[in-house]
Amino acid sequence: MESMDPFMQQALALARLAVGLSEPNPRVGCVIVSSDGQRVLGEGHTQRAGEAHAEIMALRDAQAKGHAVAGATAYVTLEPCSHQGRTGPCCDALAAAGIGKVVAALPDPNPLVGGQGFARLRAAGIDVVVGPGAAESRELNIGFFSRMVRGTPWLRMKVAASLDGKTALDNGASQWITSEQARADGHAWRARAGAVLTGIGTLLEDNPRLDVRHAPTARQPDAVVVDSRLETPPDANIFQPGRRLYIYSAVGDAQRQAALEARGATVIAMPGPGGKVDLAAMLRDLAQREVNELHVEAGHKLNGSLIREGLVDEMLVYLAPKLVGQGREMAHFGPLADLAQVVAFEFLSSRMTGPDLRLIARIPGRDAF
Predict the structure, then answer these.
(1) What is the model's pLDDT at position 141?
(2) Which of 31, 69, 125, 206 allows an S-S link to 75, with CB 3.0 to 4.6 Å?
(3) CA–CA gap between residue 166 and residue 159 (Å, rounded)
(4) CA 73/CA 103 separation, integer angstroms
(5) Can you state the angle between helices 54-64 and 6-16, rounded to 10 degrees?
(6) What is the model's pTM?
(7) Which of 23, 43, 51, 55 is the catalytic position?
(8) What is the DSSP secondary structure assignment for residue 234, as one 8-state letter?
(9) Strand (E) positions, the chain?
(10) Nearest to 41 by CA among 26, 27, 55
(11) Is 293 a catalytic residue?
């Protein structure tokens, strides 16, 4: 297998620095290289939404270092944008700077861009090469691609369990089955998500904050609660200053809704069958609210509902080397009548996290969008 160009590898490394920073924008890195391919003139990555994109940061970096970029090559991990959004078109900025060639990992799935950036670069006389680093860039931005193409966030379900698959004792006690290292790693996954979701059962039992405390982050993800009967206490820890909180309900209760909205929550009625929240409609609504990756930390009932409805894309599982015996399971659904009905995943990775085993598993073909 042919190795990737080191400048694209460098651009991808820069793109990873935008994780937990650029949401809801994609994580993009850019490296500007001299025309002879010998020197890096400037580099950068996407900043906060509304601030500079990777290409602009790289152009500024080159200018600050006194480097002229006329005729240079820009390696960028996603098609330069061509539309006026929160910022101006990056393809025009590259053309105005005199860039001679653009090597991009892959086209932007945003229908407002969708090849137009490449077309405008070529129209300006810039040589465009597309493809190097495509798989890595797409995986880094799987949530952005999901939102743009499917109209739903990429749903990653996190579970901390014992070796025999129990997430809590029968009485609900679960703190802590897994180690401090696993919890810190889990917070790093929270940090990369646009929103963290839980159910009312977990909220009432554990009163979690669901914020990022044990990993570095430039922003806190939004919080989401599935609360069919609007039972969220207005003094729950989920309410954090400056953080958006969405509460999805299945019933209307003006008094409870007013109390929650007074605390800063956005209450959204999303009734589904059986007096429950319509979970599929909720995901579509969260995409409209620009959530790319949805990180789920819920109990066995809500986990089971999400799996039963085919809404889970990926599992992030921490297994502790402990046996619990009778206790609460990862996800309650079924019983199935036949093994052919099982929900099948494929393992993407496994690694030790402290004394625990971290597994990442994905529904086969789920990322083929």
Answers:
(1) 98
(2) 31
(3) 10
(4) 7
(5) 110
(6) 0.94
(7) 55
(8) T
(9) 29-33, 40-45, 73-76, 101-104, 127-130, 154-162, 166-169, 195-199, 222-226, 245-249, 266-269, 293-296, 314-320, 327-329, 346-353, 356-362
(10) 55
(11) no
